[in-house]
Amino acid sequence: MKLVVFNDFKVGVVRASSVVDVTDVVEDIPHINTGELMSGLIERFDQYKGKIEQKVASSQGVPLNSVVLRSPLPKPPKLVCMAVNYMEDGTRAEPAPINAFLKSPTSVIGDGDIVELSQDNATVFENEAELGLVIGKRASKVKAADWRQYVFGYVNFIDVSSRGLGAQGMDSFFPTKSQYTSAPIGPYLVTADEIPDPQNLQVRLWVNGDLKQNYNTNDMGHKIPRVVEWTSSITTLLPGDVIAAGTNHWGLGPLHDGDFMEMETEGLGRIRLKVRDVLQRQWVRETHRERQAKGQPAQAPRIS
Questions:
Q1: What is the pTM for the complete model shown?
Q2: At what angle are helices 34-43 and 45-58 packed, to 10 degrees?
């Protein structure tokens, strides 16, 4: 099932090229806002699945291209992002030590929204396309073998990074990762039954139609079972939490004002975003792979 939030934050299900409004089916779930409603639906999905399926089967819906899609997770309780979790197409001899950081839920935006580049003096802004795991129930100290019991579904996730912010010599994850609009999620939340093998999905990201990132989730250094086990050993995961599983860095490159960014993971649809930089800064248009092939530092330098 492909769950969406659309228009004035109604809850819907995508069926072929249409979307069916199921808000009336789920609105009795206790909530203050749509973010809480989606988390509540995820937690109670088994109770509501049959009712939702009946509504979808008996409704015509409206054309998908006639609605405004929001993030399917407007305000997840937590965003846990894995750090340096890919083998970079076999160029790493072994996985990096397992690590992660928290990204602010208020940084979430959805399909068709604008990524606003911070006016802070970042050294560069980069795209990081990632598979997002959506937690389905309270999870603490989960065994790796049991990970599927706790993953409700999957989303496209882009970690927009504002490099170089924070005090020199200190951990800079907070200022570099939690900027406003730096966590695009969408367009759909796809339930786990539609993705039988999340460890073998192609992830692609385009900037202005040029393919920049193109990698498979089988290149993860720490696989999904270990990721769920490790994160839940540190913090209690809640329904609606997202674990972003990391990215292959070879295709990372600078984002500029006016860019059009698209990301698609197999089976999860394609999210489309615009980029705006009121300062109109410019960087050398090269990816990490292109720069390292020249023996240059991975991150592109600013030119204006």
A1: 0.96
A2: 110
Is-contact 157 253, C-beta < 8 A? no
pLDDT in tens, 185-234: 999 999 999 999 999 999 999 999 999 999 999 999 999 999 999 999 99
Whose tokens are 């951990």? That residue is 171
- Average pLDDT of the residues in 246-275: 98
Q: What is the DSSP secondary-structure string of the chain?
A: -EEEEETTTEEEEEETTEEEE-HHHHTTS--SSHHHHHHHHHHTHHHHHHHHHHHHHH---EEGGGS-EE-SSSS-S-EEEESS-B-TTTTSSSPPPP-EEEE-GGGEE-TT-EEE--SS--SEEE--EEEEEEE-S-BSS--GGGGGGTEEEEEEEE--EEET-SSTTS--HHHHH--TT-EEB-S-EEEGGG-S-TTS-EEEEEETTEEEEEEEGGGBSS-HHHHHHHHHHHS-B-TT-EEE----GGG--B--TT-EEEEEETTS-EEEEEEE-TT---B----HHHHHHTT--SSPPB--
Positive or negative torsion for Cα 48, 49, 55, 60: positive
**What are the tens digits of pLDDT across the range 16-67?**
999 999 999 999 999 999 999 999 999 999 999 999 999 999 999 999 999 9
- Residues of the chain within CATH 3.90.850.10 domain(s) are 79-293
Mean of the per-residue pLDDT values of the chain: 96
CATH class of the 79-293 domain in this structure: alpha beta
